[in-house]
Amino acid sequence: MILTVDLSSDVPLYQQLRDRVVEAIAAGDLSEGSPLPATRTLASDFGINFHTVNKAYELLRQQGLIRLNRKTGAVVIAPVANPTFRADWTARARTLLAEAVARGVPADEVLTACHDVLHTFNASQLEDTA
Amino acid sequence: MTLAIVLCSALLALVLAIGLALPSIADPTVPFGVRIPPAHVSDPAITKQIRLYRGRLLGSGVLAAAGSVTLYSVTGETLMLPLSVLVLVGAWYGCFVLAHHGIRAAKAAGGWYEGTRQGIAVDTELRTRPPRFPWLWLAPPLIITIATVLIGVVRYPSMPEILAVHYTANGVPDRLAVKSVSTAFSLVFVQVGLTALLVGIAAAIFHSRADLDPARPAGSARWFRRYTVLGAKALLGLAAMIDLGMLASSLLMWSGTITPWAPLTIVVPVLAGVLVAVIVLARNNRDWEPVEEGTGLVHRDDDKQWRGGLLYINRADHALFVPRRYGLGWTVNAGNPQAAILLAGIAGLITLLIVLRLGR
Question: What CA dihedral angle connects B45, B48, B54 and B55, to 10 degrees?
């Protein structure tokens, strides 16, 4: 799994790392049981602070996407979209869509963009979650 | 004498050929150890520096060869010949530094990194599913080393009571010693140490930190996997050739054979091993895959972690080996405390070898 971070972005590095892992799970590059490198190893490979990776992993753990274990390290777990998550996600999606509408992006263009993004993820992944 | 001239000329030609070829086989986004954005790889300033570098190096090569031959013909001193190789290596570094500073100046003046999106790419599978170590390639150096030890042990009782333990550069023994375990097995100890060192380095490069191109990370990661395995095979092949040379030299010593061709038994296999390793690494030193869909990112400007474009010092980086920025293979992270131990080991073994066989 390739992880890339943009150093000139306004998004903090730990958030970018968290986002890339979520995208990799959505694309099927990471599945349940897939290991992630140890915090120090990943920090060294990125040439960034150990605490940045630690913060990203902790965020993923809190969101129920990975399990952290002293022995096995960070491992992807089967994510569960419970009602709380769905409500939270809908609220965030609403804000994101509102930004496009507020700037005058036509509704069909918004829908096409959503459709295109969804199809960049693994097809089987979409079927599984349907 | 003729033999020494031929060997030194071959070595000089090899060093010169590598030096002249390096700008073509090195990563074009790191010309002379200066990180630049891909949009500037064909900048006239870089083309000019490459032309100047090659001209200077070629001139230095001709002068070094002519100078050493002249000194040799005047003094008759064979050591003048390998001196030309050292002089050329020094001149090579000088040419590199001039080109390095020329490009750094152009990069700063032109603000080449302004407006770019700098990024970092990591392939996590290089850690969770690393490339496989070529275990089969470990067999030749191990078998030859074990065979050398066994042959030595078996032949020890029948070895001459006086052994030649020191040679001139022409292969004439100039120091003899009474047979003992330390004298008879002096080369074997070096052989075991060198084999362990090269095998250890081959294993360590599998833990090195990949330096992926964030503009095309997937292709870059595939290339790094291939290059790591090739690098390990080249090192293990080199270890086997060195072991072969050491075995042959030990056999000459143990049988009491005196021949002017004695230096060839070690020099030829080592040179052949180095030549093959250099060719293999040079042919694969760059990722020649077609460019995939770009990410829009460029490699971050990491010049400050590379002193003079060659020496990598980063205490925050736990990796002992990192891909060499300019040149072939890997280099050590001088900011890692283990690097000092490794370099001391290499220096010790080389010194021991020179003192035992060729020193004066």
Answer: -140
